[in-house]
Write a structure and sequence with these properties.
alpha+beta; 19% strand; globular; disordered N terminus
């Protein structure tokens, strides 16, 4: 008999398309993981649904060159897919971000809490996430992370830091 213990917060990481496993047990596990992934998407918060709707609206409105009245690049279908995957992988406890088109054809996912409190992740069609944040006390952070359908703990940590800091400021 086989036993398998899974951390279900990131089931997509367990099995990739190139998994060498096979057989009836593998098929059952894969079906279960797909069901969990589907349930996770359908159980998304209303705020996440709003962000996904905003993404669809932004992608449609910005699909042609010059959408900004100047010479902005269009948002590609791949960029839209990457941004959707990013939004779908955000934990439901995280406040919904704003979806902002960028003239270089990328999409920014932003948490903007006012002057001196912003965290933004730019998503394009390259599979890289460029992020920058300004936090309480003038602390700045920025960097680049690979994106393969799973939001890194570093990026989630910065978003949480911003939102936790805003909550602390509001209590003070």
């Amino acid at each position: 008999m086989s036993t398998l213990a899974l951390a279900l917060n990131r089931p997509a990481q367990l099995l990739g398309s190139g998994s060498p496993a096979h057989g009836a047990e593998f098929a059952q596990i894969k079906a279960l993981l797909n069901e969990i992934k589907s349930d996770r998407r359908s159980a998304a918060s209303a705020l996440q649904s709003v962000a996904l709707a905003d993404l669809a609206r932004v992608a449609k409105a910005c699909s042609q060159r010059g959408w900004d009245g100047y010479d902005a690049k269009p948002i590609s279908p791949q960029t839209q897919l990457n941004a959707r995957a990013f939004l779908e992988d955000l934990p439901m406890w995280l406040q919904a971000p704003d979806v902002v088109p960028e003239p270089d054809g990328e999409i920014a996912i932003e948490w903007d809490l006012g002057p001196g409190q912003i965290f933004s992740v730019s998503i394009g069609d390259t599979g890289k996430l460029h992020y920058a944040g300004l936090f309480q006390g003038g602390v700045e952070r920025h960097g680049v992370e690979p994106f393969e359908g799973v939001v890194s703990t570093e990026i989630l940590g910065y978003a949480k830091r911003l939102l936790d800091g805003a909550g602390a400021a509001g209590r003070g």
